[in-house]
Amino acid sequence: MSVFVNALGWTLLHFVWQGALIGLAAALALAALRGARPQVRYLVACAALLLCILWPAAELVGRLDAAAIGLATPVSGAIETIAPSRGLLPKLQEHMTLIVLAWAACIVALCLRTTLGLLWIQRAARLGRIDAAWQLRMDRLAQAMGIRRVVCLRIVDTLASPITAGWWRPVVLVPAALMSGLPTELLQALLAHELAHVRRFDYLVNLLQNAIETLLFYHPAVWWLSRRVRAERELIADDIASAVAGGPRQLALALSELEKLQFSHHQTALAANGGDLMHRITRLLRPAQSQSSWKSAAALLTLAVACAGCASFASAQGPDDPVDTKAVADFSSCKKPEWPRSSLAAEHTGTVHLRFLISAEGRVTDYQLKSSSGDPLLDEAARVGISKCMFKPATRNGKPVAAWMQMQYIWTLH
């Protein structure tokens, strides 16, 4: 197994508990800020979602750097806490290549789905009809909102909700049904909502969300955080649009008309039907008073301290920490490594220096090749042979703990 595949596999597995911790922290923070402005909740959700990709990325880089200089990249105690079953960690290590291949296959499928969505939007923008009168109205509205870029308007028959796509040359796709069935002032309110996304460069953030969702598709916390980002973003756009397009009541009426239509949601674009439409309508008609107080700040401070403590606990007492007694091999349980036939025929010899992680149950759960014999087949044979041994685990404060030990195997011909 390559060093990269092993490092990537353990990084993906570690994100199971890391993502859960980030999701819990974000949920508590958003609950404490439920009375705050949507901009504040949006920043919290974005920061949590960004941390979901930065944390495993930093861990992967650290594992690869450690492997490059010949240091071990141990399985942390947090994984052992999640997977305490006897023999589970060795099974994960044994099937690590399959785990990474399955992850990569899902990535390819999700990328294909995203690409097809982007191609559909490009085709709709290219084939959509142009309405000069409404293009002029939207240009004036964009100028009033401080947008200096040219925003194109296209009318699409097979669409049921306005969609914004692109950031350098943004385009707003409007369904033909809205153009013919919605009063001018209500349609203008919906266009103001889409222009609010353009002004805030929300399309770029949306693309980053899609990338994070694709890479970490297997974790529910990532999808929940991404939904919260989109929901808060729609509320922010509603506030901007209602300020320039006739007030919140007019936008609420436009959204209520939009709710009557059946539509499909495109994750690669920004649609006016994002978030909970009924919640958005209710909020526009009956805005709640913001409740930013010292209590929210105190709750967030307590949350930060608790999360720091959890992270410290997860990494504390790791297998690299000093132990009272070291792990000892039970050589009666070991089998002599089998000499690979091709290596024996070529009379390859050498010394393999391996570093093993011995679990609290006395089993080998991870390894690091410190120095090679010069023959990869001999290295692997030594690893397989020693990994079948049972060990008396190391102890710390009288209790068995996971710890690293080093062993050498000398391949020599007599």
Please explain how this structure is put together.
This protein has 15 helices and 11 strands. Residues 71-86, 262-270, 290-297 and 312-317 have low confidence and may be disordered. It folds into 3 domains: 3-94 and 293-315, no CATH class; 109-210 and 236-273, Zincin-like, CATH 3.30.2010.10; 328-411, TonB (TolA/TonB C-terminal domain). It has helices at 3-32, 38-68, 77-82, 88-94, 96-127, 132-144, 176-181, 184-199, 202-215, 220-244, 248-259, 277-285, 294-315, 341-345, 376-387, and strands at 152-156, 163-165, 171-175, 270-271, 328-330, 350-358, 364-371, 390-392, 394-396, 399-401, 403-411. With 414 residues, the chain is an alpha+beta fold. Helix 8 packs across helix 10, helix 9 (202-215) packs antiparallel against helix 10 and helix 11 (248-259) packs antiparallel against helix 12. Strands 1-3-2-4 form a 4-stranded mixed β-sheet, sandwiched between helices. Strands 7-6-11 form a 3-stranded antiparallel β-sheet. A two-stranded antiparallel sheet has the order 5-8.
Please give a quick description of this structure.
This protein is an alpha+beta fold and 414 residues long. It contains 15 helices and 11 strands. The chain is 58% helix and 13% strand.
Keywords:
single chain, 414 residues, alpha+beta, Zincin-like, TolA/TonB C-terminal domain, 3 domains, four-stranded mixed sheet, three-stranded antiparallel sheet, 15 helices, elongated
